[in-house]
Design goal:
5-stranded antiparallel sheet; transmembrane; membrane; Polymerase; 2 domains; transmembrane helix; WaaL-like; alpha+beta; 20 helices
Length: 561
């Protein structure tokens, strides 16, 4: 009976979580931690459609799974139990326990969700020993994803079900007057389905694409699974997610590696699906006026020439390819290169600039009536400097003056801050945070409190917005390392690494089978985690697939032995 209930819970999670879009609103106190850790709507009301009720559902499901868990154990289950305990401790000792428990606004991936993931993983290690139960859960995922993908394709072609009258009434619980006119939009021809962000749709679609491809090749209903595979691929490329594309390419490499001699067996089906996939790409790229092709340029983002700022005695240093030292004198400011040589200020057309190679992009002018206030510009970037009490100050995002401070950065990423849609900047400021609280981390979703939000120089330089709230690192491994600590990160890396190595060896020497496509799907998702965060709409599906993959790899290992 317990196994049936656990199977049913896993089916419900796999089916409902990707589909669950429901409006949630709450009036917040302006002084609360939730108010200051995410954008809030009018009159201090917090709105969420994509995460809050998913976490609630996960919390209930996770409790049921944990209560039904038996005593049977193995190394994988022990790892899951240890990670669960570390999650609880991270929440208890978090910078903000409230945020750690529920997560921040808009994400809601707190300890409740994280512990539920481990409950899914642990339960799956038992439930998925039976093929029938694996099929039930995967079928639930496939049926649910068809709805998600149809909504996504409609979004690509300009019709968003979530915004039309019927869809909006459904996702507001027929109380649309409570939420007003809310628009979900991520640019032209962008697919996010029911996952709030196109990046998360990319992570979700790459899992389901390889499951669909596996069933297309190995099952009888070729037409049905072939159409599904094309639908999943359309959502993958239509999401514009470069992380999803990297996962797709990594999965294809594994697929070709595993096929080996089996390619003769499946060459007809492969030829058909490859031609159709190419047709889907060409059709969608043409519809979007070749935007998809431009979006897949992984080298985008120009190299940065300046990186950061730090205070020194009676001055500041702007660090870059050529460091610029700025010091206050009796009646003005003076500029020096990184060798301490003075740089002269020249004027042309009423504009003052630094007259030396490597520094000529800098422009200087007085700002306002305060003779100690300067506006320093470099290309499109402007930064205010106020000298007072032998210190330099700048404006924060609210217009108030705050001392210039040094922000730690990972200097190997200097110059690459614009790469990966500004991920280079976020990672350069995030990596040093791994060592600030190495044991238990800052607490789930407390990354927003750990990140140097007062890096007004860096935010202005790379985002053009001093008030930009950085609430996630766009890298799952940085996310859990900072939020949960290095022990949690180490166990995760060992868990993923052991699975990958064992699975790779067994799949290369074995025949193509169900385990091959589960392995490829889970590995492709792991690749996306290098550029995406965990999120409550996709992570439960992964932890189901991951535990399923572990069971299948172990079964294949036993057959070899």
């Amino acid at each position: 009976m317990k196994e049936k209930v656990k199977t049913g819970v896993l089916m419900m999670i796999s089916f409902i979580i990707p589909l669950l879009v429901l409006g949630y609103s709450k009036q917040l106190d302006p002084g609360s931690i939730r108010y200051i850790t995410a954008p809030i709507g009018a009159e201090g009301i917090q709105y969420d459609f994509f995460s809050y009720y998913r976490e609630v559902f996960l919390g209930v499901g996770g409790i049921v799974l944990l209560l039904l868990e038996g005593r049977r154990s193995n190394l994988y289950k022990k790892a899951g139990v240890v990670m669960t305990c570390l999650s609880i401790l991270s929440c208890i000792f978090a910078e903000s326990k409230e945020v750690a428990l529920w997560g921040i606004n808009g994400r809601f991936e707190g300890a409740i969700a994280q512990i539920a993931y481990m409950a899914i993983f642990i339960a799956g290690l038992e439930v998925f020993r039976e093929k029938r139960k694996r099929d039930l859960v995967v079928n639930a995922m496939l049926i649910s994803s068809v709805v998600v993908f149809i909504i996504g394709i409609m979004q690509f072609f300009g019709y968003n079900f979530l915004e039309n009258e019927i869809g909006y009434k459904l996702i507001t619980g027929f109380q649309s007057e409570r939420f007003g006119d809310i628009v979900f939009r991520f640019g032209e021809n962008a697919i996010y389905g029911t996952h709030f962000n196109p990046n998360y749709m990319g992570s979700y679609a790459v899992i389901m694409f390889f499951i669909g491809l596996g069933r297309y090749l190995t099952r009888r209903k070729n037409l049905l699974y072939g159409c599904y595979t094309l639908l999943a691929y359309g959502n993958l490329v239509g999401s514009h997610s470069r992380a999803g594309q990297l996962g797709y390419y990594g999965g294809l490499l594994l697929f070709l590696l595993f096929m080996g001699g089996d390619i003769k067996k499946y060459w007809r089906k492969l030829t058909v699906i490859m031609i159709l996939i190419y047709g889907v790409w060409q059709g969608m790229d043409t519809w979007s006026q070749e935007f998809l092709g431009r979006r897949m340029d992984f080298s985008s983002g120009e190299r940065a020439e300046i990186y950061s700022i730090k205070p020194i005695d009676r001055g500041v240093v702007i660090e870059g390819e050529h460091n610029l030292i700025i010091r206050e004198t009796l009646d003005s400011i003076e500029f020096f290169d990184d060798q301490g040589r003075k740089i002269e200020v020249a004027r042309e057309g009423g504009i003052a600039y630094l007259d030396r190679k490597g520094y000529r992009n800098y422009r200087i002018q007085r700002s306002g009536s305060n003779e100690n206030l300067y506006l320093l510009s470099n290309k499109d970037f402007s930064y205010e400097l106020l000298y007072s009490d032998e210190k330099f100050y700048t404006r924060d995002h609210r217009g108030k003056y705050t001392p210039v401070r040094e922000v730690e950065r990972f200097k190997l990423l200097d110059g690459y801050e614009n790469k990966g849609s500004k991920r280079g900047y976020i990672w350069s400021r995030s990596i040093p945070l791994l060592w600030t609280r190495p044991l238990l981390g800052w607490g789930q979703d407390n990354y927003v409190l750990a990140f140097p939000q007062d890096d007004f120089f860096g935010k202005g330089l790379f985002y053009g917005n001093r008030g930009m709230l950085v609430d996630k690192p766009h890298n799952y491994f940085l996310q859990i390392g900072i939020n949960n600590g290095l022990f949690y990160l180490a166990i995760t890396l060992i868990l993923f690494g052991v699975y990958f190595i064992k699975g790779l060896i067994k799949e290369v020497v074995g025949e193509i089978s169900e385990s091959s496509y589960i392995f490829i799907a889970s590995t492709a998702y792991m690749i996306t985690l290098l550029f995406n965060d965990s999120v409550v709409s996709v992570a439960p599906v992964f932890w189901c697939i991951f535990s399923m993959g572990i069971v299948l790899v172990d079964e294949r290992e036993k057959r070899f032995l």
